[in-house]
Amino acid sequence: MKRILISLMTIALVSALIGGGIYAYFSDVETSTGNVFTAGTLDLNLDGGNTNVVKFTVSNVKPGDNGGGTWTVANVGTIGGYLDLESISVTEAIGTTTDPELADEGGPDTTQLGNYLLVHMFIDTNNNGSWDAGETDIFGTNAAPAAINTIAGSYALDLSLAASGGTNYVTLLWSVATSTDNRIQGDSVTLNMTFELQQRAAD
After folding, report:
1. pTM given for the model
2. Which range marks the domain in which residue 104 is found?
3. Between 98 and 37, the higher pLDDT residue
């Protein structure tokens, strides 16, 4: 019995030594931890901020008047993008109706300022507030402005704005022809626009 126990102990010891030898080869361990993926950002600023911008509040408009305004559009995100005019809407109101207006219209006040308020919108590359040869028209042209009530919809500008500070300028010029008569008296037009910055150019 004693010999059997000694034999068993010897076998166990030899097995342990042999088993331990399996782990005696050289080895090394390196790690790859803390791998992080962070999404970039597309962030459009209009005139330096993220709040609604009212560019025009023009009162007492009359034949012969004109003016303009420029929006500064900038990508302050970390990914380059493309600027579009996602939507444009125009609403008109009759407002105050005067006797001269009714006389020129020959009846009810049905003709609105939107027919006679002419606009030209373009990408004002050099930000000088006026259209220069080679600049991209959005609607209307320098030679033939569009009646404001014809421009509703959306416009795929595909204007590239680089990440972290890519900036460009969009200018709108307006005018009322001197040939316009009393029929626009008291009328008003409201222009609403939504600019959009997206990762890819419009399809």
Report:
1. 0.82
2. 44-198
3. 37
